[in-house]
Amino acid sequence: MKTINWRGVDLNLLVAFATLMEHRSVTRAADKLSIGQSAMSHNLSRLRQLLDDPLFERQGHLMVPTERALELAPIVETILSMITNEVLKPDRFDPSAYQGTFTIGLTDYAELLFAPSLFDTLQQLAPQCHLSFCNIDRHNYQAAFDERHVDLVIGSMAVTAKKLESQYLYTEDHVCLFDASATGLTAPVSLGDYIRTPHALVSPEGHLSSGVDKQLAEQGFQRHIAIGSRNFLTIRRLLTDRNLICVVSRLMAQLAIFNDQLSQCPPPVTIPDFDINMLWQRRNTTHPKLCWLREVVKDTITQEVSRLRQR
């Protein structure tokens, strides 16, 4: 088998060949490619050496292709068309025809809030797709991109790695949630009542304290945390008919999936708001499928947040 000198293979030579086939003139081909006639002649010389064939023979004012050139012409045209349309200018993503899988990493909070609306939207726009929700948290979200091949991550994480990009979605605040009958509390809850009432704590890491306890200690106060769970659904069920109060994100408190009659009001202590962001791998920023997915997810979450805030 003949050894190919790949260092001598230049895509520009195929462009030169195709242009010569079109114009049958070194001068006109050079003009079309905006290069000098000597450069075009040099390209033809390299093509002849590379393909071991004269390729074009001068007959009067025309360069007449050889039989080998005629055989190569449709092949070169196909190669250049593929490079142009599939490599340099990939097709726009068509969600209606997509049959692959969208994998979205969500924190517990984000999954509870947005999984239904994301499913509905993606099923409507990409009815043949598969959708996979991957549970992530602030400790494993970076590894999820490589190990679980997630397309996007949604949560309160901030970008700390150079390989990731992010987009701000919205800011979340907090409310106190409680059963007024079981606790005897009325809104707004005073600091004294807040401290005296046993607390339920939503704690993703399983800790039975938070920044609130440090803040209270600086004022000489201490609250009693009676129960902690990483699962908001567990805490929400515990609040009904029990002498418990809990600080939760406002949007979680607004969810319509609960039939309870819990009361809510602003907390009597300062609790920092937190931002919800969408993260993705920087190397995939311009991928047509993922550009489309990011836009759809952003719009869907923005609309859902607006709907919940109006409740």
Automatic annotation (TrEMBL):
It holds the Pfam family HTH_1. Residues 9-66 form the HTH lysR-type domain. This is LysR family transcriptional regulator. One of its GO terms (molecular function) is DNA binding. InterPro entries: LysR-type_TF (IPR050389), LysR_HTH_N (IPR000847), LysR_subst-bd (IPR005119), WH-like_DNA-bd_sf (IPR036388), WH_DNA-bd_sf (IPR036390). Keywords: DNA-binding, Transcription, Transcription regulation. Belongs to the LysR transcriptional regulatory family.
